[in-house]
Amino acid sequence: MALHKARTAENRSMQADEPPNPRQDSERLRSLYEDNLHVIYRFIYSKVGNREEAEDLTSQVFIKAVRSIDSARGSASIQSWLFQVARTTIADHWRSFYQLRAHSLDDLLEAGWEGPAESQPVVASSTPQDRVRRLLEQLPEHYRDVLTYRFLLNLSIKETAARMGLSEANVKVLQFRALKKAGRLELEGIQQVAE
Amino acid sequence: MGSHDDDDNLITPDEPKVPSADTVEQYLQLHEHIEQLRQDTRPTRPGKLTSDEARTYQAAALFRAATPGADEPDPEFVASLRARLEQEIATPPTARVLRAARGRVSRRGLLAGGIGAAAAAAIGVAVGSALPHAANPSATWTTLINQGSGIWQAVATTEEIPVGGVKRFVTDSVVGFVRHTSNGYLALSGSCTHMGCLLNWNAGARTFDCPCHGGRFTETGMSAPSSAVAYNPLPAIQTKVENDMVWVYVASAPPSDTLPTPDSTNGYPTR
Questions:
Q1: In the A/B pair of chains, how many CB contacts fall below 8 A?
Q2: Average pLDDT, whole number, for chain A?
Q3: Are residues B56 and B128 in the same domain?
Q4: Which domain holds residue B46?
Q5: Same-domain pairing of B44 and B127
Q6: What is the pLDDT of residue B3?
Q7: Which residue, A14, B133, B223, B263, is most buried by CB atoms nearer than 10 A?
Q8: In a domain, B93, yes or no
Q9: Looking at the structure, do residues B35 and B129 belong to the same domain, yes or no?
Q10: A111-120, A132-141, B186-195: which range is least confident on average?
Q11: Complex confidence, ipTM
């Protein structure tokens, strides 16, 4: 009987948007990171490309989220809210790093945001591997090769140079040009999605 | 062969050319950066990148993330973050608030969205110490636009704001407030330093109130004692009076066509 009562009470408080029951609250927080830790980490990693920063920023995102979830929305949109927190955190991070002029920053944020915040499914549905594959398809052959060797096969400059029959200096030039081109293509892609 | 900017065919595998001196540095910087990414260590990044260069570095991050296995979180990290969050959850809310107030995590999530995003991205802030009308002498301000790179915009006539009065203004890049004080006209950014929600002027309490998480700022832009959490002060915006108008120094308008629809009551675009 007592159990029954407790259940109804729980159901009620789940429906209405009010007096947070502490136990339910911690359940909610727990599922917040259990469900999302990996996906947010990967998202952040795709923005910074290294573990140290990805760990640092992921921690920031979740601590921020746990601290402010009381005032956050219902669990249906928790993930998109988390992505929003992640984007904010990354944008902050870029800004502190790059000291960009305001208009360049906007471009960058657009790029970092992958279009308007509402288009969150884009983020969730495209892995870095997918995006990279799409970019590679659009690149000229020698750009595709150098990026494949350097990143997908994780080869050193020396190994890449040997495979491509280039000098090491030229591999460095080529990877620069290839990434520059890829960065532009990626932006174009984002703009198309946003439209 | 003047410009290297857009010339994809300058170097081909068959016929490599020697790059000119000014760009060699760029190649080497990026190369070093990539090597750091490959080691998974915090990379150095050159400051003052153009947006094109920044995108190049972002592309490097994206490609690095596609290296097989690279973006898999370290189990040790996952475990320790979990433990930390458990601890956080176990902490009573009041203590949480206090800690948040001290921690840097709460500090500047300026870009939560809506017009707040544009506002925050382009808050017109001049160098603090150089300000004739510094609203928050103790505040540390981020300089998002360099002096000389913004524009002056008129936002009010001098007579429309009486002494003690506050007026909200909206430019293409910033939402803020102009106050008429005994020291003249001072301006503050109108977006909360927590998550970027747009603040409302509360004439009764003389505070700027955040509709999102209970943040509150005094009229000088400092975090108010009644704020749910102590946040960083509101950035000041440089002002001047000319031709009986109050002007603010703000960033020139960002390309705003791809930004989410402005929502003046809630800075979160995702609902």
A1: 295
A2: 75
A3: no
A4: 21-65
A5: no
A6: 42
A7: B223
A8: no
A9: no
A10: A111-120
A11: 0.76
Looking at residue A155, its pLDDT comes to 94
Instruction: Using pLDDT thresholds of 50, 70 and 90, give the confidence band for residue A191.
Output: low
Structure tokens at B46: 């050159």
Q: Is the pLDDT of residue B214 over 50?
A: yes
B interface test, pick of A58, A73, A98 with most B CB neighbours within 10 Å: A98
Helical segments of B156-248, H only: none
Tokens representing residue A163 in the block? 């495979």
Are the beta carbons of A172 and B110 separated by less than 8 Å?
no
C-alpha distance from residue B83 to each of A29, A42, A64, A68, B126 (Å):
13, 20, 15, 18, 42
The answer to whether B246 and B156 have CB atoms below 8 angstroms apart is: yes
Check A50 against B12: CB less than 8 A apart: no
- Alpha-helical regions (H) of chain A: 2-15, 22-48, 51-68, 78-98, 102-113, 120-125, 128-138, 141-147, 157-164, 168-194
* Cα–Cα distance for residue pair B101/B91, rounded to 1 Å: 14
Tell which A residues from 148 to 177 touch B, by Cβ distance under 8 Å: 150-152, 154, 157, 164-167, 170, 172-177
Q: Are residues B154 and B231 in the same domain?
A: yes
pLDDT at B141: 41
Q: Give yes or no: residues B127 and B247 share one domain.
A: yes
Report if residue B175 sits inside a domain. yes
Domain count for chain B, please give it. 2
Residues B228 and B124 in one domain: yes
Q: Tens of pLDDT along B40-53?
A: 998 887 767 777 88
In this structure, the number of other CB atoms found within 10 A of the CB of residue A31 comes to: 12
Q: Tokens for B161, please give them.
A: 């704001």
A9-45 pLDDT, tens digit each: 434 334 444 444 556 666 777 777 888 899 999 999 9
Q: Do A33 and B82 touch (CB under 8 A)?
A: yes
CATH number of domain containing B162: 2.102.10.10
User: How far, in Å, CA of A189 to CA of B82, rounded?
Assistant: 35
d(Cα A170, Cα A146) in Å, to the nearest integer?
A: 10
B87: in domain: no
Regarding whether B236 and B150 lie in a shared domain, the answer is yes
Q: Are A64 and B106 inside 8 Å of each other by CB?
A: yes
- Is A118 in contact with B270 (Cβ distance < 8 A)? yes
